[in-house]
């Protein structure tokens, strides 16, 4: 099925590995020009070269001017931005009681403030053209806080509130705004979290993974490609009536309605 992305231009933040890279590849497969970005510039360029129409940029969202440089360079290269996929690496594990003010400031800056700035930079063009897609890669912690990931839970919940508010403001201009919530997807980040759990519980990494899988109704971790397919759909024309939504891709992990 053609989802109408051929010739469109997409920025995927934090896309040199993991879920961001899988999304970039999925959008490329649908014919979009894809801007791959991340702190590791050599990887961004390498991955972009593998795409049909890709541009690799070294961008560290921890730096204040990163959103302006990312969007500005993409506009200089392609002339327009039709799709923005918001994404960033997760902050370090922490309990709610133990997170420091400095840690919280950094998490909010990277997962909320900079993501809002990215959206604000692409919105004028999208609204003027009457078509645009903003999709954020969130976390199941937005709906069901994850133990020992307090920084992520707090900052991503703030982004979810912003996106929901924004979705109502730009819907009439043909711009949709959604968030996809991954559960346990088989990435290096999840492997890192499993290793941390193994250490805390005094078990092997394999046992920690088995315990995590046991809590998932499907009994397994998802693949980055399965997650990316959901994001790609939301970026396409068939999803034009879906906005303000939080869509879980978690194998049934979150127990709420």
Provide structural commentary.
It contains eight helices and seven strands, in the order βαβαβαβαβαβαααβ. It has 257 residues and is of the alpha/beta class. The longest helix is centred in the middle third of the chain and has 29 residues, at 101-129. Pfam families: adh_short_C2.
Outline of this structure?
This is SDR family oxidoreductase. It holds the Pfam family adh_short_C2. With 257 residues, the protein is α/β, with parallel strands linked by helices.
Question: Which keywords apply here?
Answer:
single chain, 257 residues, alpha/beta, Rossmann fold, 8 helices, 47% helix, globular
Strand elements, count: 7
Summarize the helix and strand pattern as letters.
EHEHEHEHEHEHHHE
Estimated helix fraction: 40-55%
Q: What global shape is seen?
A: globular
Structural class comes to alpha/beta
CATH architecture of the largest domain: 3-Layer(aba) Sandwich
Whole-number total of structural domains: 2
What is the mean pLDDT? 96
C-alpha end-to-end distance: 30 Å
Strands in their spatial order, largest beta sheet: 3-2-1-4-5-6-7
Sheet-strand content, in percent, reads 5-15%
Please count the helical segments: 8
Low-confidence stretches: none
State the CATH superfamily name of the largest domain.
Answer: NAD(P)-binding Rossmann-like Domain
Could you please say which CATH topology of the largest domain applies here?
Rossmann fold
Largest sheet: 7 strands, parallel
CATH class term of the largest domain: Alpha Beta
Radius of gyration equals 18 Å
């Amino acid at each position: 099925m053609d989802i109408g992305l051929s010739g469109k231009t997409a920025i995927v933040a934090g896309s040199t590995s993991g879920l961001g890279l899988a999304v970039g590849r999925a959008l490329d497969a649908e014919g979009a020009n894809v801007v791959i970005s991340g702190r590791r510039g050599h990887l961004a360029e390498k991955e972009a070269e593998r795409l049909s129409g890709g541009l690799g940029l070294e961008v560290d969202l921890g730096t204040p001017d990163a959103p302006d440089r990312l969007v500005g360079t993409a506009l200089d290269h392609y002339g327009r931005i039709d799709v923005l996929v918001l994404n960033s690496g997760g902050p370090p594990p922490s309990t709610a009681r133990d997170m420091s003010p400095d840690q919280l400031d950094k998490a909010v800056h990277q997962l909320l403030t900079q993501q809002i700035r990215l959206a604000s930079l692409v919105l004028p063009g999208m609204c003027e053209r009457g078509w645009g897609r903003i999709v954020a890669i969130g976390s199941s912690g937005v709906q069901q806080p994850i133990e020992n990931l307090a920084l992520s839970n707090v900052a991503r919940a703030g982004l979810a509130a912003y996106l929901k508010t924004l979705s109502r403001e730009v819907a009439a201009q043909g711009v949709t705004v959604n968030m996809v919530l991954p559960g346990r997807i088989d990435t290096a980040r999840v492997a890192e979290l499993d290793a941390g759990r193994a250490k805390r519980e005094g078990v092997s990494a394999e046992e920690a993974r088995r315990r995590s899988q046991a809590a998932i109704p499907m009994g397994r971790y998802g693949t980055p490609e399965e997650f990316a397919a959901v994001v790609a759909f939301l970026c396409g024309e068939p999803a034009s009536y879906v906005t303000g939504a939080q869509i879980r891709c978690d194998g049934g992990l979150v127990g709420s309605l």
